[in-house]
Known about the structure:
The protein is mainly beta. It is built from 1 helix and 15 strands, in the order H-E-E-E-E-E-E-E-E-E-E-E-E-E-E-E. The chain has 2 domains: 3-59, no CATH class; 77-190, Immunoglobulins (Immunoglobulin-like, Sandwich), CATH 2.60.40.10.
Amino acid sequence: MNLKWRRIMVLVLAFSLTGGSMLFADSATQKVKLNINGRDVEDGGYVIDGKTYVPVRELEGLVEYDEATKKVSYYTPNVHIFLFKGNEIFSKIEKGLKLKFSVFSQIDNLKTDISAVKVTITAPDGTSKTIQTQTKDGKDGKEFGSNFYFITDEYTYDFKNAGTYTIGFYMKPAKGNSDYVLVAEKNFEVL
Length: 191
């Protein structure tokens, strides 16, 4: 056999071995659709050797990564959200009503530092508006400890459509260049 044919045979053998191991690895790893609390996760999850893996950044909580120790920390504070019209709590309203309301959020068991909070409202069609944000060094000198509450100013919203509306409570981690992270939601009905 001449040198040219030997080289071709070696390359064919190398590619077939590589291709076979890639096929084996692909069969051991399977990408799956992932839905968390009725919300599809864009990147999905993976099944590897019979175990399901979910990207931690997709869970409703705060994630910190320490490069030095190669450690990921995940925090889920308890957040309780109440909607007030004046001094009354509400959970259902009538369609077509223009309502002035405030959002009361009670937070406890926060085990990491945050720099800001944000409250949003999302309509049934998916459009979202920010009700209010507050930074740690805000106008009222608000500090975010392990237990605190946050009350938005009164906000006027026109509930034009019937359906499920969602109040979202977000936190911004103090470490890193992180953006706001959704940590809690409250749904209410417009009839």
